[in-house]
Amino acid sequence: MSTDFRGVIPPVVTPLTETGEFDRDSYKRLIDKLVDAGVSGLFVLGSSGEVVFSTDARRREIIAAAVEFAAGRVPVMVGCIDTETLRVIEHAKVAQELGADAIVVTAPFYALQGLEEIERHFRMVKQAVDLPLFAYDIPVCVHTKLPGSLLVKLGTEGVLAGVKDSSGDDVAFRFLCQDNEKAGHPLTILTGHEVVVDGAYLSGADGCVPGLGNVDPVGYVKQWQAYQAGDWETVRSEQDRLAELMRIVFAPEDIQGFGAGVGSFKTALMVQGVFASNTMPAPVRTLEGETVDRIADILRATGVLD
What we know:
GO molecular function, one term: 4-hydroxy-tetrahydrodipicolinate synthase activity
Mean pLDDT: 96
EC number: 4.3.3.7
Binding site for pyruvate: 209
Number of helices: 12
Number of domains: 1
Family: Belongs to the DapA family.
Pfam family, one: DHDPS
Structural class: alpha/beta
Strand order of the largest sheet: 1-8-7-6-5-4-3-2
């Protein structure tokens, strides 16, 4: 099993039963689907994996299942996301205990702090847990944009193994890739911006973490392989098709944000027969009725549903 964390590493969506329990059977079907499609790894308990909706017991349940179902075929990255450093370290130690291959950590996000404290946060996590540490740059949720200079510094010093960039800031992303190259490429840089992965690859990204990859992992793997072969026409054309598929997130007309995005992914997986239910975590509403039909129509039009 490779642990260089390059390529397509989907943020695995967490299935729930209609009563809100963790659905192990659906989770296994999804992980088998992803691995069989040729993904390079799995990222569990990210934003798409409902980390902030999950109790400590639920987090443990998800990690253990992911490691069990991956069965050493691909590495498992685990989101250890919480408000402040000591809580993150607790989650990271559990992830290590349960067999995680890497951990993914945001900046602190309740008692907002300056860059000096954020740098110390990452250093303390790395010191506490001997696993590759990825910084998760998602300012829309944690209210801090991680500067490229800090990330490259921590990469050069061996604190960070890489970055999962979900900032949506393509200019900063390109500068990060350039500065990482100038420093000798200490960081593995992954984009979470699934609609413009082609642009990220042009910038020099080492892979992608696409939520939409739960629905169509084959497409993202095809795009990655084309990138490795220098086949930029296929990289672009596959991205165009995936962008059309991403329009499932606009199918809900009265739900926004997480409910529309992850809700659409879950609904697509249900329509595909991977999930038994598209149940969302409370208090988010589950998509139903005509919205499900609209999502199914888009899946057919983009070739991921017969």
